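Lecture notes, unit on protein representations.

Consider one protein chain, 513 amino acids long.
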Amino acid sequence: MVSRPSCITETVKLAEYLFTHLSQLGVHSIYGVGSCNELDAGYAADAYARLKGLGALTTTLGVGELSALNAIAGAHAELAPVSGVKIHRTLNDGNFRHFADMYGHVTVAQVNLTDPSTCPEMIDTAIQQGLMHSRPVYIEVPTDMVAVSVCAERLNSRIEIAPAMPSQSRAAALSLPMVLVDGESRACRILDEIQELITTFGKSCVDESLPNVHGIWKGEFWACENDKSFVALCDLVLCFGPHFSSTNTYDFTSIPGLRKSIVFAADRIEVFDRSFRDISCKGFLSKLLQQLDLSKVLSNVVVPGTDVQPSDPSPDPSSGRITQAEFCKRFNRFLQPGDMILAETGTASYGCRDFELPPHTTLFKPVTWLSIGYMLPAAQAVPRTILLIGDGSFQMTIQELSTIIREKLNVFIVLIYNEGYTIERCLHGWDRQYNDVASWKYLMAPAFFGADMSGNAEYGARTIGDVRTWQDLDKVLDKPFLGMIEVFLDREDAPDYLRSLLEKQKQEARSAA
């Protein structure tokens, strides 16, 4: 028997309470099987959470949520707060807890909404934990609870994360700081404060046109000597949103020394040799900005050898095929302020490190949970998207092209055709058949999925044709409207850094054997 809520104020249906609270927190799109499958919906909800601060995914319990589990695990690994709403189904053994137990490993809170009197508080607590830790939560809704009335009183209060601040005095007194900004800064919700800090001192988280932005810190193994010398001289490293995976830290060589570092992470702040958990990065950083003694800070420090911007590549258009080493630099001319750039796992995610991003441009690429095919569904989450994706990854989730067309989304797809998994070839098997993929007619895909190709419709698709030479690419980039292009690269062509990184890792593995 279901008990009635004890509430002297207005009541609402449970589902209405849940989705109203999500809407209050800025969630205006709910993902589920309105995408082509639950895995792709999970990818889209993950991307939405990273870009908007919170995402939501609805699935049926069991058959639906197990399909989405890979996406939720990725959200957990790379700190994306996705609220997963599950509707019941069992393994026909009467046990509803199997799947909650599985999700317990990749979510920070799990609630089962069976009592109307406690449902509002349980929902709020779960969402609060997701926001605090920037990780997914699991909300289980039995089918007979969806329309049950619950107390609406808590809808009048915002879900907040309580701040608590350690001392900032030592940090505020230092004179030669270095600021490292990493992708988990969005999870800390401090991008505005970081921008203020950067401009006070005079990869897509900051304005790269500023004179004191010197590119990517590539660590001890790959950085130039001038960069290494400057980093050694700094008396403070402010490290925002670090993600210390091998892929993201140049094989763990770019991690700063903790004794002179303040690390702002989603679930903690590390101040030199002390760690403070479950406190507000935003509140602490605001206090630090207030206490900073600008008279002691060296403004716009020139780092010899790092302030020279890469020149625009000018290869001879007749000289042959496009190469990985220069493609992203040439493609850079197409980028506009405010663009959202998605770079799929593989050579695209490594090559895009060469982009010089215009102001207010966001670059989104995976660094730990390297699930290929992620980025095409993720392209649903943002208004104007440029997607760089390899042929192998595209084949994993191509059906989401139909969702993009159905929802009339503005996505420009750069399909990198290199006859298979080039990043896998770098690891093992240059000539092995298992690294090949089927050869598709990729530019026919929009028409197959129902796009109007006439050019006369209010919303349609346009394929520009295949791009094989620099001359082809220049012609494409000069066009006012873009939809989908296919760029042909050599099957064994990979960014130099990727080659050297993988070779270093293979040598280390052989030495350890």
